[in-house]
Amino acid sequence: MNELLDAPTIAIVDDDASVRRSLLRVVRSAGFKAEIFASAREFLDWLPRNQAACLVLDIQMSEMSGFDLQRRLAVPVIFMTAHDDASTIERIEKSGAAGHLRKPVDPRTVLRAIRQAVSEAPR
Questions:
Q1: Which of 7, 13, 24, 112 sits at 20 to 30 Å (Cα–Cα) from 106?
Q2: Are 6 and 31 in contact (CB under 8 A)?
Q3: How far apart are CA 30 and CA 118, in angstroms?
Q4: What is the arithmetic mean of pLDDT over 45-65?
Q5: Distance CA 112, CA 26 (A)
Q6: 28-64 burial: b if 16+ Cβ within 10 Å, else e
């Protein structure tokens, strides 16, 4: 049996193409399926026909912020931000996110956060 067929899909939403490509490689190298999106709208267009076990999500994006997208979802979210000031951290903690990462993200740290989010997600 192909293990990748049974692997959870991790969605990565970030408006920075280099971040998307880097995270895609990291997530796939760990045996997960992964999909990347340049905006919240792209992800929402994909979502009705697909399912994500976890979402790695940039907070600051044009059109729709990561916080705004998270409020529409019932999937674990790991926020990423380069701006982890006290007010941002407080919003993340109040949001119920599965975790948060400071950019640039360390591959081991992002994989640890994804594994934890997927393992704790209701099935």
A1: 7
A2: no
A3: 13
A4: 95
A5: 11
A6: eebebbbbbbebbeebeeebeeeebbbbbbbbebeee
Query: Is pLDDT above 60 for 3?
Result: no
Compute CA 5 distance to the chain's CA centroid, rounded to the nearest angstrom. Answer: 20
Helix/strand/coil (H, E, C) string of the chain?
A: CCHHHHCCEEEEECCCHHHHHHHHHHHHHCCCEEEEECCHHHHHHHHHHCCCCEEEEECCCCCCCHHHHHCCCCCCEEEEECCCCHHHHHHHHHHCCCEEEECCCCHHHHHHHHHHHHHHCCC
- Say how far apart CA 49 and CA 93 lie, in whole Å: 30
d(CA 107, CA 62): 25
pLDDT digits (tens, 9 = 90+) for 59-111: 999 999 999 999 999 999 999 999 889 999 999 999 999 999 999 999 999 99
